[in-house]
Amino acid sequence: MEDIARQLSSKEVTKVPIESLAMISTFLMLMAGHLLKVLAKKIQMPFTVLVCLAGFFVGLIPGVAGMDVMTKVWMDLDPHFMLFLFLPALIFESAFNCDYYTFKMQIWKILLLAGPMLVASTFLTAIAMYYGLGYYQEDDFPFTACVLFGAIISATDPVAVVSLLKELGASKQVATMIEGESLLNDGTAVVLFTIVLEVLSKDCVATPGFIATSFLRLTGGGFLCGCFFYFLLEWSLSNIHNNPVLEVNLTICFAYLTFFVAEVTALKVSGIIAIVILGLFMSRKGKTKISSESELAVHHVWSYIGFVAETVIFILGGMMITFKNLELEIFTWKNFGRSMILYVFITLIRFVLLLCLKPIMTRTGYPMDMRHVILMTWGALRGSLGIFLALVVSINKSVPSNIAGTILFHASMIALYTLVINATTMPALVKKLKLSKETVIT
Fold it and tell me: What is the secondary structure of 412-426 as a DSSP string?
């Protein structure tokens, strides 16, 4: 360790083994997360915003104590690896800890938001980008690329949304509806993303039949995969009594196994939907299979896993906003202006779609009024998930570099805008709209 410390403080940092740099940088991020968590509580600022900004500025550091080398260690990793490492834990933890009864009461609202509204938002965003920003004038930027961007950016990030709602103490009904939307539309958006990326990379025509069958296979297969692993986990837990270590181990293993079997094996179905189903079913009934002596241990372990994943993924997301965009040399004033206009378009599209769906949503679940429309519009945060999906596009050799670079730039900038502008003003908005947890909606 002394040798590593000496190398980090000298020009020999590049000689430090990659494994050591990755390990050191991970613990540095967790220490930073600890300090930022304390700071966030003192200054009453969302934790996710602070860690993302920390990563943003780390990406700009020109080689202080080898930080540029440690940054590059993470930046050179395959984005698929980072998604597979953090996404199962984040999504399962969120679904597992949600209030199933409230979720069930809001299910039709959630399905409307995560289904028809997300699809409409995807194509309206594509139209706004293609015609509103003038990409129709560029021969090498097809409409399909705009649809791909729409799929990436239309889904709200469950990590960012859930973290913020927990800190703000939003009412359970409102929080569950927004959290449920962010969980399910995550799966829907990634399904659309997968289909459109295949069309774009193979330069083929997407027929309605191809889109429909692909969508049903990915979503339906994900649902069945989640159900299968839930029953297997429930049976496994029922055969263990008062053994916290083994019960915690089972929940962690099954969360990752479900995702990997769905995504990596020959099934090729939606791993996100499979994880959401596993977590929701565990929230509904699976918790009763956990021994009373193990409940607290399971809760604490998953809370820490959520903190670790949240900290690392948001710092990495912030680093990628600067590191990858500067690397692609696409950070121009013209693109910066386009990204700001696109941010306004996306916000307006969500607001209009919510207004259109409001008459239907008021007839199901808990009552809904204009306050909820405003909060759901402003609370639609985009986070590191969109950045990682854009990175997946950037490493696809079949996608032209100009398309991949443009999508990555706009996705990262929209994520930054929503975290810096929307997230920081959310506490005041929740208070102004009187939608805190003390509010009772009848």
Answer: HHHHHHIIIIIHHHH
Q: Tell me if 423 sits within 8 A of 164, measured CB to CB.
A: yes
Q: Supply the pLDDT for residue 279.
A: 93
- 163 versus 46: the higher-pLDDT residue is 46
Q: Are the C-beta atoms of 51 and 367 separated by less than 8 Å?
A: no
Q: Which residues contact 410 (CB under 8 A, 6 or more apart)?
A: 129, 149, 153, 335, 338, 339, 342
Residue positions counted in the chain:
442
The tokens for 253 are: 């293993």
Query: Angle of helix 79-96 relative to helix 384-394, nearest 10 degrees?
Result: 150
Contact indicator for 248, 297 with CB cutoff of 8 Å:
yes
Does residue 26 contact residue 309 with C-beta atoms inside 8 Å? Answer: no
Q: How far is CA 47 from the centre of its chain?
A: 15
Under CATH, to which class is 2-433 assigned?
Answer: mainly alpha
- How far apart are alpha carbons 48 and 315 in whole angstroms? 9
Confidence of residue 127 (pLDDT cuts 50, 70, 90): very high
- Domain residue spans in the chain? 2-433
**Contact between residue 174 and residue 372 where contact means Cβ atoms under 8 Å apart:** yes
